[in-house]
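Revision sheet: structure tokens.
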Amino acid sequence: MAAARASGLVVPRPVTFVTGNAKKLEEVRAILGNSIPFQSLKLDLPELQGEPEDISKEKARLASVEVNGPVLVEDTCLCFNALKGLPGPYVKWFLQKLGHEGLNNMLMAYEDKSAYALCAFSFALGPNAEPITFLGRTPGKIVPPRGPNDFGWDPIFQPDGYEQTYAEMPKEEKNKISHRSKALDLLVISTLTLLLQTLKKKLLTFSWGSTEKGKRVGFPFLI
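Predicted:
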């Protein structure tokens, strides 16, 4: 049972992770495990423009209306420092038009090959709730494509401190340091913190009862 808080309540409704990407779904399941149970659903949300956090939040608002319940959406970026953050949230379009070699060649004229992968997860409890966003960032550099090319731009991104690209890394290793895992870690911590705060408040009420021998005893209970 997934738990989230709104106005001091723990809401026992499954979270819908909005995605049609099987590889992304597989990776999110591997990272989250059983910490936050969820179901997945593909929705045709509009392609928005703007800052990553704003895009993610707006997608969460739109998805929560369609689902009429709690949703989780993700937006990922690949940001080249030499290009002031481009292609950023538009990397999917760049990849479709240019391919991996083309993305790498965008930095051909620049000495600075540094980049960072950014992930924005936004959670909305429902249509009228303000989404909460969790950001994960992993620094690295852009390299000629290496490794399997079946998951986005993984073949051209080499995280700092590693000699392998995302695509070359074992899944378990990538999931320890990726931008996606960092954002999801924050989501899990936030969810557990809110749940514990809610339970703590509910345990403050103390009720008194009587035993058969007439002695009065107290016990805490949830309200």
